[in-house]
């Protein structure tokens, strides 16, 4: 009972408090100040590893210093560096075709292909050179057997010690449901892994004449998460492809592709007889340094506790003595990366990232300001991540290599895109990661009063996922996607500062409660809803819809549409709820993703949607992504 | 859920178990209509399987409600929420079934129905938990446990006092505005006199048939019976001036219910609705001008909140417009907020919701409503 009362008073005191040194009511302007600083021209969109990011790091270090924070144990300062791949380019990959019947070395030297547009390494390729016989493996795909469907390009062919030649994407003429299945296993990294596991020496990818981007080499994706795939992998253009396939078949490449395009599992590949193939892959990976900014906030020993207050005190230190509050501060720079949704007219413009995620940084700073120096049982760690936009790199490095053992972390609270609250709505995500969340959320939201949507799924495209992976309970604050998402138009004046201030209040109450829990929150492993089969690079369709991830409805609620995109041209608007896509009923985002996988570029699709409760129909024509 | 209505338990079961609810013909899912009266609508409770029956303290700073949120007890317990800090504590004993809490003005007393004194109560809990653990789920039904008695707990001192002691279901109690009187519903009549064979059968099939209204002093003395009509009378509340009461009366079969008002002694009973549907869970707005209630007029399992002028002169006006269950409306003492129970989140049970109430819009809408045919 007495304990409850203390909690009540503490909660009241927290709510009434502004940022240190600022008069009451100034917290909102404090939030604005942080967002405007981060989303300024000067910091150029805060691309990980850029000068703008370094300037942001300096600003965040100043903020941590002002809060009285200390570096993590064993660290001299707040900056934690990690190395990442900032880009890849080809430095001379080549393919050489020789006639195997001719005694080696072939006096003619064979036919060699190299250079831009002809041969290019895949971004995840190993460096090196191999020579060997070659085999064509159709689409080079393996879909795990699930009773209903089976597809294995390697069934009936032997690729051990050979170089695999495979088509990009997945069978073009398959039935919708089959396409949806196949597309999940069409990622090139996944295809390379399958080839490697079967003993292949290397892989050559060709884009068939019946596919989008026909005959072109695969662009070197900005793939920051690259680790070597353990295989030499290159792509070759149509000219090289025709020459390769001529060794195994008299048909044209188009005819060969067509025979695979209905996904008949009995159509198998063939050896490229008489060919001795040499693959040379040469990739330069530009390594850069990313920087997280992390510190421990000053706290006070709770009244009645006999703890020493020292981090090693066996008496005062609770089980799992740290609570981490964080937000990523990096964004897309000028949008020259895969994540940008800017259209051509906005090319090379600064992507300000005011909502994504200056808003989250401001919220986390504000929560920290309210909790610094207050009575907490657990120590509060304030963390600002870099590398989120290019693969959640900063937080992933922290949970793997950081100075804090993850077993010591009671929970992680993340703020990512919290500046666009509309109609009093706020989503709290990953709530399934611990049974404590519903109770803490309920009590904390009573005085703050958001119209909350609580979502259990902890597999989110943000830093909380790094912590979920190492079994730390997580909670993510999110106000939803919008038409400015990942575009230069995500600017500071569009932020809802009044509600951002309330998000800080709610975050403060929840974090305060977690920090005072006697026992750390229990972690629950939530089962993944969608099985990932090798990345999303199989997805090519662009519809220009912006799903509202924050509201749970039957169907897919759109928060907006990309201007000039297929959805926009089809007359869809924010607020519409898509309930049918083609012949497929849509009851959630997963159904939608699945339906998109089955889409054919350039073929109109019927969409049934609800607008103001009324069923309407339109048609949109999906386009190719690149 | 106020159990009161529940001979029709099978109706309630439809939404309590999360059965998808079909759209009623002609009813759109948009809540445009709701926004006339209710804004900043938000879900108040998130913990546990169900929560409902939220009632404000007289100064509006606290809310008492029932919720299934204790892993060890599958039945409702009573919780007191501080609306300024969100701190919430359990005020009922923790075991047994409890229901229908109400706060006594000017005191720390929390009134509720409870079976915790029944030596069998822990066995029911265990059996229910075992059933759920086996993956089964009983259809939600309120059983009118004849062991249910009215209890009061002082939320400060923890002292627990028993107010009734008669076999039969005693519950659905509330205080008068001055805290001196309690009105409640009881099936005690069925257990205190000889029943005909027809009545004995009825008691087995539909015990709530015997529910009648009673009044007593806050200490449990001076018991008087206020109603004596066939069919379930229950869910009584005082008007803000304490002069009259409002409740709902079911017909003999227990399918149709309507809202009634009467003087505090049960005289001058007056019917104010006649939808020919299940209209129940009435509560008078603190202005004393109109009664908020729930009805399934628009579809068997689609309960919506309505309001009607206290005299029932005009047609009731619809408030909520969402699929599923909306009911048990309770305005805050200053009349500026509404708390109710809803399944609009499509969860497995109802939860408490809160919204800002537009009293002026409500008055205007009532004034514009046509005369009720049955009202002369």
Write structural notes for this entry:
The complex is a heterodimer of chains A (626) and B (376). Chain A is α/β, with parallel strands linked by helices. Chain A folds into three domains: 45-87 and 286-516, Aminopeptidase; 92-281, Glucose Oxidase, domain 1 (3-Layer(bba) Sandwich), CATH 3.50.30.30; 541-624, PDZ domain (Pdz3 Domain, Roll), CATH 2.30.42. In chain A, 25% of the residues lie in helices and 24% in strands. Chain A has helices at 2-16, 27-38, 51-66, 176-183, 188-197, 238-245, 253-260, 354-371, 393-401, 437-448, 464-469, 497-516, 566-569, 589-597, and strands at 79-90, 94-99, 111-114, 119-121, 128-136, 142-143, 151-152, 163-167, 202-206, 232-236, 270-281, 283-296, 322-328, 379-385, 409-415, 425-429, 451-454, 474-478, 541-542, 545-547, 556-561, 577-581, 584-585, 605-611, 614-620, 623-624. In chain A, the strands form five sheets. An eight-stranded mixed sheet of chain A has the order 1-12-14-13-15-18-16-17, sandwiched between helices. In chain A, helix 2 packs across helix 8, helix 8 (354-371) crosses helix 12 (497-516) and helix 10 crosses helix 12 (497-516). Chain A is globular and about 80 Å long. The N and C termini of chain A lie far apart (62 Å). In chain A, 51% of the residues are buried. Mean pLDDT of chain A is 86; it is low at 1-25, 306-315 and 530-538. With 376 residues, chain B is mainly beta. Chain B has a single domain, classed as Neuraminidase, CATH 2.120.10. In chain B, 12% of the residues lie in helices and 35% in strands. Chain B contains five helices and 24 strands. Chain B has helices spanning 9-16, 121-133, 189-192, 197-205, 359-368; strands at 38-43, 50-56, 62-68, 77-82, 88-90, 98-103, 109-114, 149-154, 160-162, 170-175, 181-186, 212-217, 224-225, 233-238, 244-250, 257-263, 270-271, 279-284, 290-295, 304-309, 317-318, 326-331, 337-342, 351-357. Chain B has a four-stranded antiparallel sheet, with no helix packed on it. In chain B, strand 18 (279-284) and strand 19 form a beta hairpin. In chain B, 50% of the residues are buried. The A-B interface holds A 4, 7-8, 11-12, 424, 438-439, 441-447, 449-452, 454, 509, 552, 554, 610, 612-614 and B 28-30, 32, 40-48, 69, 81-89, 345-346, 354.
């Amino acid at each position: 009972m007495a304990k409850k009362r203390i909690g009540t008073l503490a909660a009241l005191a927290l709510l009434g408090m502004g940022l240190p040194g600022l008069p009451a009511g100034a917290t909102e302007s404090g939030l604005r100040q942080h967002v405007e600083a981060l989303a300024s021209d000067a910091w150029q969109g805060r691309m990980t590893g850029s000068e703008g990011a370094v300037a942001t790091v300096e600003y965040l270090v100043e903020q941590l210093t002002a809060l009285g924070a200390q570096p993590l144990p064993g660290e001299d300062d707040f900056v934690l560096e990690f190395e990442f791949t900032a880009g890849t380019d080809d430095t001379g990959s080549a393919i050489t075709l020789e006639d195997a019947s001719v005694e080696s070395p072939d006096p003619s030297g064979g036919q060699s292909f190299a250079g831009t547009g002809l041969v290019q390494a895949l971004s995840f390729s190993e460096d090196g050179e191999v020579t060997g016989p070659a085999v064509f493996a159709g689409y080079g795909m393996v879909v795990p057997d699930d009773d209903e469907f089976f597809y294995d390009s390697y069934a009936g062919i032997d690729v051990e010690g050979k170089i695999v030649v495979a088509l990009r994407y997945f069978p073009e003429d398959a039935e919708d449901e089959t396409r949806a299945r196949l597309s999940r296993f069409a990622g090139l990294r996944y295809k390379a892994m399958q080839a490697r596991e079967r003993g292949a020496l290397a892989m050559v990818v060709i884009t068939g004449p019946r596919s989008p981007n026909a005959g072109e080499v695969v662009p070197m994706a900005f793939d920051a998460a690259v680790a070597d795939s353990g295989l030499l992998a290159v792509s070759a253009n149509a000219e090289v492809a025709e020459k390769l396939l001529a060794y195994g078949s008299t048909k044209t490449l188009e005819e060969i592709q067509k025979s695979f395009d209905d996904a008949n599992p009995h159509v198998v590949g063939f050896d490229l007889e008489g060919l001795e193939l040499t693959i040379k892959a040469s990739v330069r990976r530009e390594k850069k340094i990313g920087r997280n900014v992390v510190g421990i906030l000053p706290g006070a020993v709770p009244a009645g506790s006999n703890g020493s207050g020292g981090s090693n005190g066996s008496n005062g230190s609770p089980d799992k003595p740290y609570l981490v509050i964080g937000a990523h501060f990096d964004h897309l720079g000028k949008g020259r990366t895969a994540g940008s949704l800017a259209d051509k007219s906005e090319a090379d413009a600064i992507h300000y990232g005011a909502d994504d995620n200056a808003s989250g940084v401001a919220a986390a700073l504000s929560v920290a300001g309210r909790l610094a120096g207050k009575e907490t049982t657990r120590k509060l760690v304030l963390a600002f991540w870099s590398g989120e936009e290019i693969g959640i790199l900063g937080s992933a490095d922290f949970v793997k290599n950081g100075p804090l053992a993850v077993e010591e972390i009671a929970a992680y609270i993340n703020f990512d895109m919290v500046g666009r609250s509309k109609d009093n709505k706020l989503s709290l995500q990953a709530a399934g990661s611990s049974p404590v969340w519903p109770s803490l959320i309920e009590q904390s939201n009573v005085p703050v009063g958001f119209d909350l949507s609580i979502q259990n799924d902890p597999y989110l495209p943000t830093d909380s996922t790094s912590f979920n992976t190492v079994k730390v309970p997580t909670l993510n604050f999110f106000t939803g996607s919008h038409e400015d998402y990942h575009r230069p138009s995500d600017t500071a004046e569009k932020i809802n500062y009044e509600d951002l201030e309330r998000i800080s209040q709610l975050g403060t109450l929840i974090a305060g409660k977690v920090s005072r829990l006697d026992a750390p929150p229990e972690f629950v492993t939530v089962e993944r809803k969608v099985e990932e089969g090798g990345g999303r690079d199989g997805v090519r369709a662009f519809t220009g819809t912006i799903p509202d991830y924050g509201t749970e409805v039957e169907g897919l609620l759109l928060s907006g549409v990309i201007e000039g995109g297929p959805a926009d041209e089809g007359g869809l608007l924010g607020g519409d709820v898509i309930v049918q896509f083609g012949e497929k009923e849509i009851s959630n985002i997963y159904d939608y993703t699945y339906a998109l996988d089955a889409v054919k570029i350039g073929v109109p699709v019927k969409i049934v949607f609800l607008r103001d409760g009324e069923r309407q129909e339109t048609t949109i024509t999906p386009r190719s992504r690149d | 859920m106020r159990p009161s209505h529940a001979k029709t338990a099978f109706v309630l079961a439809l939404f309590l178990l999360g059965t998808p609810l079909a759209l009623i013909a002609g009813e759109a899912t948009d809540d445009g209509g709701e926004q006339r009266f209710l804004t900043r609508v938000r879900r108040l409770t998130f913990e546990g399987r169900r929560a409902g029956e939220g009632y404000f303290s007289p100064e509006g700073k606290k809310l008492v409600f029932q919720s299934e949120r204790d892993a060890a007890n599958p039945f409702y317990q009573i919780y007191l929420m501080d609306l300024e800090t969100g701190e919430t504590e359990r005020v009922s004993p923790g075991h047994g079934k409890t229901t229908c809490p109400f706060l006594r003005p000017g005191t720390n007393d929390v009134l509720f129905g409870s079976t915790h004194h029944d030596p069998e109560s822990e066995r029911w809990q265990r059996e229910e938990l075992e059933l759920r653990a086996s993956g089964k789920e009983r259809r939600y039904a309120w059983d009118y446990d004849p062991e249910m008695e009215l209890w009061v707990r002082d939320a400060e001192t923890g002292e627990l006092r028993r107010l009734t002691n008669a076999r039969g279901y005693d519950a659905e109690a509330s205080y008068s505005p001055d805290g001196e009187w309690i009105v409640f519903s009881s099936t005690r009549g069925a257990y205190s006199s000889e029943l005909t064979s027809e009545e004995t059968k009825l008691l087995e099939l539909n015990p709530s048939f015997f529910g009648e209204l009673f009044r007593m002093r806050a200490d449990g003395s001076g018991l008087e019976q206020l109603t004596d009509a066939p069919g379930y009378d229950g869910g009584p509340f005082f008007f803000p001036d304490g002069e009259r009461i409002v409740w709902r009366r079911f017909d003999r079969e227990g399918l149709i219910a309507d809202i009634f008002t009467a003087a505090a002694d049960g005289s001058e009973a007056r019917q104010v609705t006649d939808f020919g549907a299940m209209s129940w869970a009435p509560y008078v707005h603190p202005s004393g001008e109109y009664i908020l209630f729930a009805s399934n007029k628009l579809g068997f399992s689609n309960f919506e909140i309505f309001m009607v002028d206290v005299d029932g002169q005009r047609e009731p006006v619809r408030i909520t417009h969402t699929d599923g269950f909306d009911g048990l409306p309770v305005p805050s003492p200053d009349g500026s907020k509404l708390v109710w129970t809803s399944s609009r989140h499509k969860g497995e049970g109802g939860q408490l919701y809160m919204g800002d109430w537009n009293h002026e819009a409500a008055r205007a809408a009532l004034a514009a409503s046509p005369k009720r045919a049955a009202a002369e």
